[in-house]
Amino acid sequence: MPRHVRERGSLSVVEVERHPKNPIKVSEIAARLTGLLFSTPFSAEIINAPRYGKVKMPTLDLYDRTTDPEEHLGVYKAQMYVQDVDDASYCRYFPTTLKGVVQSWFNGLPPGSVACFQDLADRFVS
Hints:
A two-stranded antiparallel ribbon has the order 1-2. The chain has two domains: 2-37, no CATH class; 44-125, no CATH class. Helix content is 40%, strand content 10%. It contains six helices and two strands; from the N terminus they run ββαααααα. Residues 1-8, 10-16, 24-30 and 32-37 have low confidence and may be disordered.
């Protein structure tokens, strides 16, 4: 239940008490507002896929288009493969390996347009 409401600029912030057996549910209005504040090229299936426990962040140089994209992709896939994670995790962690114009490229992909890692990988190397 709401604990209290406070104003932050033009937004009202509702603080809630968390109860371990009752997860917080986000109303449809709040979900739509969140969508306006943050959009992603990932499909709903990727966004809503269950999260695995601990996933170690890939340790490779951030890709900025000055090296071979196939090599970057190969190193990334090798580091993710040993963690035994699902396709959604491959997708969700890949943008963390990008910077500069390549990060802008990723952010510019149409919302919901990436349905699987192979789709993202194909776009990345083309």
